[in-house]
Specification:
Layout: E1 2-7, H1 11-25, E2 29-33, H2 44-49, E3 53-57, E4 65-69, E5 74-78, E6 90-95, E7 98-104, H3 114-136, E8 140-145, H4 158-161, H5 169-179, E9 184-185, E10 199-200, E11 212-213, E12 216-220, H6 222-227, E13 228-233, E14 249-253
Parallel strand pairs: 1-2, 7-8
Antiparallel strand pairs: 1-14, 2-4, 3-4, 5-6, 6-7, 8-12, 9-12, 10-11, 13-14
The structure holds one DNA strand of 15 nucleotides.
Length: 256
DNA sequence: ATGGTAGAAACTCTA
């Protein structure tokens, strides 16, 4: 199974890139974030024509997450159960014996802001829920935009970013508590190039200057981590005209 | 020096 995650920053705008990318990489499952559309305007027919089923948890203008799959998925939930959230940030589904979760963690805006508090509370709810999910589903994959760079090597300039949003210690601790539920960061299961990032600001030519962060992650349960054969960041779509500010991350799983 | 760009939507917010 090839499973991927991509923050597309508007599915409507990025649909041509997504369709080209699906044809080029042929993933079996794709977690999307920031679809920025309501369910009524989700391009299900275009994706179906490309060979993909889709489940969407949409929202007007902001957020929105989806799971695309070649096999028919069975929806598990939209949102974190028992966590009231007006924002569409989680969808989970069962696909070919794997429970797949697409997550869009709150950005947090700036350290100490109201949105930062919401981000930390959101992470806490995610960790509590995933503990119960992992207990019930040995094949569990949680992919998405976590809006936290786990370590300094995931940051182009750790000194410049020190203490800032995406990097602050409370955010990293919150992410560690999610990982400590029992996941592996799939990217770090393998030797990787230095300065591997998944997001670059649109401004100041950040992508060209390799000024990025690795904030899009694939967290795998022990069973799936043992089956993981590769995890790579695909820079090609970020080089196109009018790209998403995020690159897709792709994992290959050897499932029996 | 607090800039710059992009998306959605509606003259501003979010990232």
């Amino acid at each position: 199974m090839k499973i991927a995650t991509w923050n597309v920053n508007s599915l409507r705008v990025r649909l041509p890139h997504l369709l080209d990318w699906l044809a080029a990489r042929a993933p079996d499952v794709v977690c999307l974030q920031e679809t920025k559309c309501e369910d009524a305007t989700f391009p299900a027919a275009e994706l179906r024509s490309a060979g993909y089923c889709a489940l969407h948890h949409g929202q007007r203008s902001y957020n929105g997450v989806a799971i695309l799959s070649r096999s028919e998925p069975r929806v598990a939930c939209r949102g974190i159960p028992a966590f009231a959230d007006e924002q569409s940030r989680v969808i989970a589904a069962d696909v070919d014996g794997v429970r797949v979760v697409s997550v869009y963690v709150p950005n947090g805006q700036s350290v100490g802001s109201d949105k930062y508090g919401y981000k930390l509370r959101w992470f806490e709810a995610l960790a509590a829920w995933l503990a119960t999910e992992l207990a019930a589903h040995p094949n569990l994959a949680v992919l998405g935009d976590f809006n936290v760079a786990p370590e300094d090597r995931d940051v182009h300039d750790p000194l410049a970013w020190e203490g800032k949003i995406h990097v602050s210690e409370p955010e990293r601790e919150a992410l560690r508590r999610v990982v400590a539920v029992g996941f592996a960061d799939a990217f770090r299961l393998f030797e990787q190039p230095e300065k591997s990032f998944t997001w670059w600001d649109y401004r100041m030519g950040a992508f060209r200057r390799k000024m990025g962060l690795r904030i899009d992650l694939a967290l795998l349960s022990p069973a799936l981590a043992g089956a993981c054969r590769s995890c790579t960041i695909d820079l090609a779509p970020r080089k196109l005209e009018r790209p998403s500010d995020h690159a897709p991350v792709l994992c290959e799983l050897a499932l029996g």
